[in-house]
Amino acid sequence: MRNFSKILLLIIFINLFGSVSAQSGGLRISGFLRDGWKPISGSMVQLYSYGSLLMVAETDLAGRFNFELELNREYQLIFAAYGYVTKRLTIDTNVRENEEREWTYWFNMEIFPEIPETDFSVFQLPVAKIYYFSNFGEFDFDYNYSGKIKNLSNNLVLYVKKERSTMYNKYITHAENEKKSGKLVKAIDYYLLARVYDPYNQYPVEQINSIEMQLLKKSDKYKAFVDLQQLGDSCMREHDFLKASVFYSESASVYPENNYAWYKANLADTLNSRFDNSMYKKLLYNHHVSLADKYISNRDYINSLYHYELASKLNPNDEYVFKQIKFLGTQLNISIDRSNSEQYRRLIESGDRYFQNSDYDRAEQYYNKALTINQSDQYVKIQIDKINRKKELFKQFSFSPESRTKDFIANLAKVYDTGLSQEFHEWNGKKVVRIVINDGREAREYIKIQSDSETLYYCNGQKISEVVFKTETGH
Fold this sequence. Notes:
By secondary structure, the protein is an alpha+beta fold. The protein starts with 13 loop residues before the first strand and ends with a helix.
């Protein structure tokens, strides 16, 4: 059988690998969007099927995104970010007849900056094609096809690598000139582009932060601009692309010289014109019904009721969901206490928020409170188990560069959740920040050790600069 954990790292900057889970129901796509080792956060990864946009997923601080795909359909993922070359890949989820399983497939997508007046039309083609291999019963990508794209794009990749420094200096010069002439918003625009070409240089970020602080203190106009941008961002996450377009366009009209605002407005317009809202609602509906069915099979009635009711809002006329809600409320003699249910959901949300911020003590407090309301919630029990495992890891923490062997780093990928994990330690009288980024195949451990006299930074046991630490972790 083919080794599906094997990585093919192409010059076109995509590496793919697969793994299998033992659940039923479809294909879960997960991955990271990066420029080198720098995660690209806040990008909207677009999922299409047969030409229609189904949904978008915003990349998190680690550049991570997830999609749950139905089987026996064809999909396309589009990866776009401001200042970067757009890339795409296709996914064919057609499997053998009557095969009911759930697969999980991981991959990393690496994109690179766009160079003006350069022909990147080769990337109108998918950089990879993922499909089901019936001989093995697994999903993987077409090695031969990806090899051809690699050969077509080799010279382009080398050219971009060579031009990055030139483009960085060009946009820094533009930004400095605009700043001197008092056109601060336009200067921010150029600093944003400079950061794309040299993500490890903190100077553009420092300038952007300085200018924004200055504008927010002195300019109500800029405050209005930021508010409109944030409203647009919120609408994008809610898939209300029409409203997002309105907010972004309004923000662009406040500062017409800001190309980034127009980029977001045009993106929202494009997504709105391609969006299949009915399909999106269907996917959400299926998602909530699937979760509700799993919860009810575990006698987790509060969660099952919660998701059936969300499904009912999406499809009020669905007879199955109506019967399930009635069944929960009458035949199982469950007291549907709305205030109790809402309190339970708030406790879960608070626990999740603290968990994501690595405040595990507070997260555990909220999860335990939730369990007093719903003792059968498997999700909460799993989260508490994760916290306990993390605390055990904390107890074991020690550091020396020579201890970070290949075996040690390889083991991190097994014991840490995929994504970004953050820890805070007191060790030998020093304050330690430990960040582990795990993409499912390999992990990278970043450590910041702060004493009264110095601050040191490491990646996998090797000394790095503060800039590299901040750039690659987003810390």
